[in-house]
Amino acid sequence: MSTTRRDLLTGALTAAGAALVPPAAPADEHGHDHDHSTVPSDPALRVKALESLMVAKGLVDPAALDALIETYEHKVGPHVGARVVARAWVDAAYRARLLANTGAAVAELGVGADDLTVVENTPTTHNLVVCTLCSCYPWSVLGLPPLWYKSAAYRSRAVIDPRGVLEEFGLHLADDVEVRVWDSTAEHRYLVLPERPAGTEGLSESALAALVTRDAMVGIAKLAPPGSAA
Ligand code: FE
Fold first, then answer.
1. Who surrounds ion ligand 1 at CB < 5 A?
2. What is the pTM of this model?
């Protein structure tokens, strides 16, 4: 039961010498009477317990963990993939290099992604990325995966009925458009190169990058022309 599990986790924290979360101040101490949570959620407790044990055993450096979290919360995200896409749109030679050898081409932009392949959408081909086994995702160019990407429903149905899944995301594809589904693994990830929207001929590379969305780079959406409703 949840109380037992919390007791266990709290015990693990204590055993690891970690500081426990201070109990909430009594209601009258700070002038209002809403509920304060005295114990974090179970997943948060589990993570804290694991982290505390690993730090106590000298297996991880807390500063390294902080740097990793900072990187994936603030520095790495879809804006990185968007730069790659925009460059491919404005530079045909870069696009060719990107499709032929993605790792080397993204390295030109200072991004490390040796295990990445870019797949290109065209008027007749639409690409969709999934990880059927778990949640493998091109972190270096898209950051953290959205919750739906990790859901069992998306992972199973994206391969069984990709058109149906895309419809539910609001993307209708004509019958003559071929849908290709790419199953990511721990060894290899995929990024969709979306079609450049109409009406963007005069935009700069950075303005183009601002149009590119995470969803389009996973393949559950197309990019709308600037200023239009999606
Ligand atoms: Fe996976």
1. 131, 133-136
2. 0.75
